[in-house]
Specification:
The structure holds two protein chains of two kinds.
Chain A: H1 25-29, E1 45-51, E2 57-63, H2 65-68, E3 73-78, E4 107-108, E5 114-120, H3 123-131, E6 134-139, E7 153-155, E8 164-166, H4 169-175, E9 178-186, E10 189-190, E11 198-203, E12 209-212, H5 218-228, E13 236-239, H6 255-267, E14 271-274, H7 277-283, E15 286-287, E16 290-298, E17 304-315, H8 327-332, E18 337-346, H9 360-378, H10 382-388, H11 406-417, E19 430-431, E20 434-446, E21 448-449, E22 453-459, E23 464-467, H12 477-489, E24 496-499, H13 516-541, E25 555-558, E26 561-564, E27 572-573, H14 574-580, E28 585-591, H15 601-609, E29 615-616, E30 624-636, E31 642-652, H16 659-678, E32 684-685, E33 690-691, E34 709-714, H17 738-750, H18 761-764
Parallel strand pairs in A: 1-14, 12-13, 17-18, 23-24, 31-34
Antiparallel strand pairs in A: 1-5, 2-4, 2-6, 3-5, 7-18, 8-18, 9-16, 10-15, 11-12, 11-14, 16-17, 19-20, 20-30, 21-29, 22-23, 22-28, 25-26, 26-27, 30-31, 32-33
Chain B: H1 5-9, E1 11-15, E2 18-22, H2 30-37, E3 56-59, E4 62-65, E5 78-80, H3 93-100, H4 110-122, H5 129-135, H6 146-164
Parallel strand pairs in B: 1-5
Antiparallel strand pairs in B: 1-2, 3-4, 3-5
The chains are: A alpha+beta, B alpha+beta.
Bound molecules: FE2/S2 (inorganic) cluster (FES) (2 copies).
InterPro entries (chain B): 2Fe-2S-bd (IPR002888), 2Fe-2S-bd_dom_sf (IPR036884), 2Fe-2S_ferredoxin-like_sf (IPR036010), 2Fe-2S_ferredoxin-type (IPR001041), 2Fe2S_fd_BS (IPR006058), Aldehyde_Oxdr_Iron-Sulfur (IPR052914), Beta-grasp_dom_sf (IPR012675)
GO molecular function (chain B): 2 iron, 2 sulfur cluster binding; metal ion binding; oxidoreductase activity, acting on the aldehyde or oxo group of donors
Keywords (chain B): 2Fe-2S, Iron, Iron-sulfur, Metal-binding, Oxidoreductase
Chain lengths: 765, 168
């Protein structure tokens, strides 16, 4: 099994499936890719947020006198005079993840909450003035975090407190011969894209709002602005052609975007608001701290009888954000009895948010750690235990899998890693003073689908333009859509230009849940085929056509040339043909809405600016991406330092549209998983419920020297239940299972089971 | 040295071979001078605190963090940014290698990575993968392109060696 096996998969075209370099590569290596804050607008002014330094209470007096004396200060907005805003419905019915609206009242919900906004002629003047704003607080007691003595777990409002499940979990546990119970905890984490959040907003004289912001979901942001400012959707344009990393935090618009637009309206000038790196940590989008209690019951021979998963996670004072971890447990193994329940703890924080593979990443960490513990208890090889519980259909829905090449992933990964040379006893492998640990874990990520829209234009010169508001957050949307259109039309890859991330283009839903590649390749393929049809209809029927054939399917288009399939005439370049038939363009727009809804504008809006149409990609089959990950760690026996020496990941993600780019995403996910296992944790000063490590030096993420050689292997095959062109989800599966594989390797090395991430040296001493 | 009133109020920067007279206060960083005043957005702001490497540029051929450098400190020195790396439209060997090895995803850290990589090669730090990893560790990449960055730097170092006919 080679890393390029997908290249030999049967594909219906010449470009999809190939290891083609990124279409946006030159722009990115020359510094020409235009990210959100990189637009010059005449008259632009700068805004800086002033944050609360207490976590709870009321704002007393705000003294602006000193700040207003700073040269260049134009305006300071506070709750006393800020524009009143309307709320936007939250996902799934709407498009925001937090109900909080800045500067609307004197209530303080969290440390770091925006309480004033300084606008000045330069960035430096705005920062200086922000430091001069004096605030009296009426502080009240706060709940700092999940472990705060005053924290109280509550049921999720609106959800059954007994949770969900199948079979008789209690009974099965009582009857189980072998039991394993453990609690796994994970800290608050930040996805930390390298491009900080920030926004440029400008209002036109006709009340039109244009916003440049990094967004995984331009249509969602557009809806949010429309609701917040009570203006029609048509009046809002969100532009986000390049996104400097998203990982969940840029799915929805946050307070920075809202404040920039508010200030721009107030000032009647374009406003640039760049959040500082510390403000990125204290203002939005952390994964909450989570406690997962897992109980496994099994027979003597290692057949799982029951899984009980109890999850408690943090949320904010105002909102009910749930990051559950049971999704992986529900589908990973053939276990007849299962129960999962969820509690929330309200803390004085902004509303938590998604970090790459929300639910799955932490869920797989707990489940796959527990499976490892069970394997030691039963004296079984961890892979053997998994194979004994292999689910041949979805244990949750009893539907067949669309494809599940997890067995092949275990095999290919184990072979590449050399797993059979592992000595099973903990602390039994060493190299001098270093203990060697080998660990493995599996993972699953669901395949969801939402409709999308695309426009394909064939220009007079034969070039092709593909347009969608969907995002490329680094996954490679630009590239794979060009590959898709090139294949569907029969033109060279280089002849296709793709435009993305602008709500003036045909609409797309969120680039999240790893869905955008599959849904947009489907939409572009459908649209490009329709454009081809139109071109060939001209070839067969137009008076100016040089061809005699009379049916559209009597033609082939290859390398940008049209020819009758029977060879009865010379091939003609598309550009030449367009001239002959007197057309300066062929433009086709299509969507992939269900047929009965395709013509309804309001249904389409729901599809693109809410989660209403997001659902499983197949009605008849359970569709998931799968992985098996293998890790070697070296642990210094004296100091407890853990180094990851090598990683192997075997993935079933269906057909790969571009293996080069898919491999990059898998590796990136595995590296983020390494951060979760060994490095990343938000620290909170409980006295002030304040995040203390709000920067990239103290919130430790993997650096180059932390990362070893990583081998990734594709074991997938095309899955047409999962998507129109046979791919499954790629973007998040890499992080799923990585932390467990590392934690299991650390146990194998040291004999010490650390159930609290990250595994830092003091926990091993 | 006598200065005109205009020159007094501004700073003269030599960026990618062109003179820029920028009306900026002494406290403005080189990073803000490039982005906000010279409108050269290729150099990225990832932290503004010297912690991520996204703002790496060359000053007289050495890599520096533009967010930790005041513009006024580098008056008269040769500043090279990512925009100045390609010559007459043909990409630098490191830029080419980054594309070939897919050494980026979102691209936001990439300008800094490439400027660091060029310097790392010139510093003679590319003798082994371990050395490349170490000397490229000042540049964070949250997309996790590190293994491909190492491959690209290794590859470009060899290409540059061959191109310049010097052994190591
Ligand atoms: S922006 Fe200069 S090091 Fe991060
Ligand atoms: S390519 Fe995205 S941060 Fe490096």
């Amino acid at each position: 099994m080679s890393t390029t096996s997908s290249e030999s998969l049967k594909s219906n075209g010449a470009f999809l499936g190939r290891r083609i370099a990124r279409a946006d590569g030159v722009a990115k290596v020359t510094g020409r890719a235009d990210y959100a804050l990189e637009h010059d607008l005449a008259d632009i002014v700068h805004a800086v947020i002033v944050e609360s330094i207490v976590p709870s209470g009321r704002i007393g007096k705000i003294d602006l006198a000193a700040a207003q004396t700073i040269p260049g200060v134009l305006r300071i907005l506070t709750h006393a005079d800020a524009l009143p805003l309307k709320s936007c419905p939250m996902v799934p019915a709407g498009s925001v993840m937090e109900s909080f609206l800045p500067l609307q009242d004197d209530r303080i919900r969290y440390n770091g909450q925006p309480i004033a906004l300084v606008v000045a002629d330069s960035f430096d003047h705005a920062i200086e003035a922000a430091g001069g704003v004096r605030v009296d607080y009426q502080a009240e007691p706060a709940v700092a975090d999940i472990d705060d003595p005053t924290a109280r777990p509550i049921d999720v409002p609106g959800a059954p407190s007994s949770g969900m499940g199948r079979g008789d979990a209690k009974g099965a546990l009582a009857a189980a011969a072998v039991r394993m119970e453990a609690t796994y905890t994970t800290p608050r984490e930040y996805s930390c894209p390298m491009e900080p959040l920030g926004t440029i907003a400008a209002w036109g004289t006709d009340g039109d709002l244009t916003v440049w912001m990094p967004s995984q979901w331009a249509e969602g942001a557009r809806r949010a602005f429309s609701e917040w400012f009570a203006i029609p959707m048509e009046k809002v344009r969100v532009i986000s052609p390049f996104v400097g990393g998203g990982f969940g935090v840029k799915v929805t618009a946050h307070a920075d975007a809202l404040l920039a637009a508010m200030a721009a309206r107030e000032m009647r000038r374009p406003v640039k608001l760049a959040l500082s790196r510390p403000q990125n940590f204290t203002g939005n989008g952390l994964r909450p701290a989570i406690r997962q209690n897992l109980t496994l019951g099994a027979s003597e021979d290692g057949k799982l009888q029951v899984i009980i998963h109890e999850n408690t996670s943090e949320t904010s004072v105002d909102d009910d954000y749930v990051e559950g971890g049971a999704a992986t447990a529900r589908v990973m193994y053939a276990v007849p009895n299962l129960s999962s329940s969820q509690k929330l703890v309200r803390v004085n924080s902004f509303t938590p948010s998604w970090k790459r593979a929300p639910g799955e990443a932490i869920g797989a960490y707990a489940l796959e750690s527990a499976m490892d513990e069970l394997a030691y208890k039963l004296k079984l090889d961890p892979i053997e235990l998994r194979l004994r519980n292999y689910a041949s259909q979805d244990p949750e829905s009893a539907k067949p899998w669309s494809t599940r090449r997890l067995r092949e992933a275990y095999d290919a990964g184990a072979r590449a890693f050399g797993w059979e040379r592992r000595s099973p006893e903990p602390r039994s492998m060493r190299d001098g003073h270093e203990l060697i640990g080998w660990g493995m874990a599996g993972g699953a990520f669901p395949n969801v689908h939402t409709p999308g829209e695309a426009r394909v234009t064939i220009a007079a010169d034969g070039s092709v333009d593909v347009a969608s508001s969907g995002a490329d957050i680094g996954g490679g949307t630009y590239t794979i859509l060009a590959q898709t259109a090139a294949d569907a039309l029969g033109v060279p890859f280089e002849q296709v230009r793709v435009r993305l991330g602008d709500t003036s283009l045909p609409r797309a839903p969120v680039a999240g849940v790893s869905q955008i590649a599959n849904l947009l390749t489907g939409a572009v393929d459908k649209t490009a085929r329709a454009a081809r049809e139109e071109l060939l209809t001209l070839a067969s029927s137009h008076a100016g056509s040089p061809f005699k054939a009379k049916r559209a399917n009597d033609f082939t288009i290859k390398d940008g040339k049209i020819a009758p399939t029977d060879g009865s005439a010379e091939a003609v370049m598309i550009s030449e043909f367009m001239r002959m038939v007197g057309r300066d363009r062929i433009e086709v727009t299509r969507n992939t809405m269900p047929a009965d809804k395709a013509s309804s504008e309001s249904e389409q809006r729901d599809a693109y600016d809410s989660f209403k149409y997001m659902g499983p990609s197949s009605a008849t089959h359970a569709t998931y991406a799968w992985c098996a990950q293998f890790v070697e760690v070296r642990v210094d026996e004296d100091y407890g330092t853990v180094r990851v020496r090598r990683m192997v990941g075997a993935f079933d993600c269906g057909r790969l549209y571009n293996p080069k780019l898919a491999e990059s995403q898998w590796k990136g996910g595995m590296i983020m998983g390494m951060g979760e296992a060994l490095l990343e944790a938000i620290h909170i000063d409980r006295r002030y419920a304040r995040i203390t490590n709000n920067n990239l030096a103290e919130y430790v993420v993997p650096v180059n020297a932390d990362v070893p050689d990583i081998e990734v292997i594709s074991v997938g095959e095309p899955d047409f239940h999962a998507s129109a062109l046979g791919g499954k989800t790629v973007g998040e599966i890499g992080v799923v299972g990585a932390a467990a594989a590392i934690a299991n390797a650390v146990f194998h090395a040291t004999g010490k089971r650390v159930r609290d991430l990250p595994i830092t040296m003091e926990k091993l001493m | 040295m006598a200065k005109s009133a205009i020159a007094d109020a501004g700073i003269r920067l030599c960026i990618n071979g062109s003179e820029h007279l920028l009306q900026i206060e002494p406290r403005v960083t080189l990073l803000d001078a490039l982005r906000e005043y010279a409108h050269l957005f290729g150099t990225k702001k990832g932290c503004d605190q010297g912690q991520c490497g996204a703002c790496t540029v060359h000053v007289d051929g050495r890599r520096v963090l533009a967010c930790l450098t005041l513009a006024s400190q580098v008056e008269g020195l040769a500043i090279t940014t990512i925009e100045g790396l390609a010559v007459n439209g043909s990409l630098h060997a490191v830029q080419e290698a980054f594309i070939r090895h897919d050494a980026f995803q979102c691209g936001y850290c990439t300008s800094g990575q490439i400027m660091s990589a060029v310097a790392c090669i010139n510093e003679g730090r590319t003798g082994s993968d371990t050395s490349i990893r170490e000397y490229m560790s000042g540049n964070l990449c949250r997309c996790g392109a590190y293994p491909h960055i190492v491959a690209a730097v290794r590859d470009a170092a060899q290409a540059m060696d061959l191109g310049e006919g010097r052994g190591r």
